[in-house]
Amino acid sequence: MANILSIAQSGLAAAQAGLATTSHNISNQGVTGYNRQQVIQSSAQGQNYGFGFIGNGTNIDTIKRVYDSFLGTQANGVQSTKSQTDSYYAQINQINNMLADSSSGLSPSLQNFFTAIQDMVSAPSSAASRQSVLSSAQTLAARFQSMGSQLRTMQDSVNSQIEGSVTNINSYAQQIAQLNNAITRAQSTGQPPNDMLDQRDQLISQLSQESKVTVVEQDGNYNVFVGNGQPLVVGSNASALQTIPSSTDIGRLEVGYTNVNGTMVTLPEDSLTGGTLGGLFQFRSKTLDSVQNSLGRIAMGLADTFNAQHKLGVDLNGAAGGDFFNVASPSVMADTRNTGNAVVEASITDIAALTASDYRLSYDGSNYTVMRLADNTSVYSGAAFPSAAIDGVQFSNPSGAMAAGDKVMIRPTVNGATDFNVLITDTNDIAAAAPIRTAAPTGNAGSATISAGTVDASFTGSAVPTTLTYDETAGTFAGFPSGLPVTVTINGSSTTYAAPVASIPYTAGATIAFGGVQVQISGVPKNGDTFTISSNTSGTGDNRNILALGALQNSKVLLGGTADYNGAYSQIVSTVGNKTRELQVNSDAQEKLLTSIQSAQQSESGVNLDEEATNLIRYQQAYQASAKVMQVVSDLFNSLLSIAQ
Hints:
By secondary structure, the chain is an alpha+beta fold. Helices cover 42% and strands 22% of the residues. The chain has 3 domains: 2-66 and 607-644, no CATH class; 72-292 and 563-597, no CATH class; 436-535, no CATH class. The protein contains 9 helices and 29 strands. α2 (69-100) packs parallel to α5 (194-210), α4 runs antiparallel to α5 (194-210) and α4 (127-187) packs antiparallel against α6 (275-310). The longest helix is centred in the first third of the chain and has 61 residues, at 127-187.
């Protein structure tokens, strides 16, 4: 009788456990990260009565959570990749919208500026046309500065988001360590604390959204690693990441951790992949820095080439043109950990050769190395300080010396856009005229004429005044300055006569160049005819230099002589637009993959309400049946008592 009662009691207990577990599943059906649980039963070992073994009921072995660790690891990996892509996309989309805006992008301002230049060609002395050029130049400068400021604001925003991500990572790490400790204590009973295991796996999932992590299970604990294997959680101990200013740019945050020796170690950006943090680092290094430098390169290229041509002209007062725009200087930042006292400087020597990269100059005690950071390529290595220009940038060390381990960051074009501004305030200072005038006296007997003449960057004024006289017998022109060589170009073929030049043969239409002056004499001169080249003391009514300035719009002066200003800007827009689209497509693909894995997880571990409703009925019936057995036992026991009475 007692055996039957104990069997019924075990069945009743099993049914109660089943009802409680099913109820728990139903209650947590909507909880993120919850995995359904099930009662695992086994038959109690039977007792031999001679005629055979009679069972002793059922045992509840454990409450098992249904969890597939393989699917969980897959989901975390895809989630980490998707979070990185989404983070990158959210940031780059802001730049894409800024660059491609047809009304507020750079292209309209560039076009308006050169349109004003072309309008001034027809009225070089007009106060209205000159004011239009100056106003459109100021608008262009404001546009460069605004875009540069927006990019700097994005740098600050990235810093803020990196701080937020690191805070989340540290919080998750601390919670995981605490759960490791609690789970270890709970498992000492021999049974798994399923709800705490779910909470820990959910924290790992949330952590993988911030950064790619590696999880190693050891004695029931999760050891969590980030980066190149830096331990974040080991057992019940959690390490903390920390944001620190870059040693070469205090306005740029990096991530470090304290090693076993108590030393703060900076983690390389490319080691912190995956998750929101990885996306922020990738956006900053691959896109934001590049766009900032590329936009600065356009601004510096425009300012430098425009200034060079503007200085070849004369203004309304007859004075030589000055700098029209300000050209930003390269940013040079010594590492705060340097022990040497070297003062390193950098200057731009060739605008066309500039890249959109930053450079790191380092010294190991024996050799200097210059790394181009955009492609991580060494562009110089030697025992001597680099003296030759590298990618259009000249390095110099005017004082002090670098010590072993010293580093210097050089950013040639980072300030190009924000420091771009107009230096001219008076419209009379616009140098629209050429610095020379040519003339042929009315007394000349022949029909030859001389062109208005142009000058190039080598013009210093030593070529004027000059009077060229024709010798009909020799068929030559004489009168060139004694200290200057003369180059004659006929149909693209040039011949240079060394100084002093007594005379040169005359060929109608040939370009004659000396001292930075180029003129053409055409027609039929007669003996003794003269042609003069003199200084232009008044820029009134002369549009030769403004024509040359307008021609710069389509001159390929950037990217190694392959692109003009608009072409270089279009390349930025295209690169950013293509990358934005790529990230959007990748995000959509990863979303589908993640949904597929999560569906597989749910089919395996999720709570099915229909199934749980069926389990409720099943456990209810088992409970009622066990209770009925106990009632029967009670009735039989009472019958035995009544017989005994």
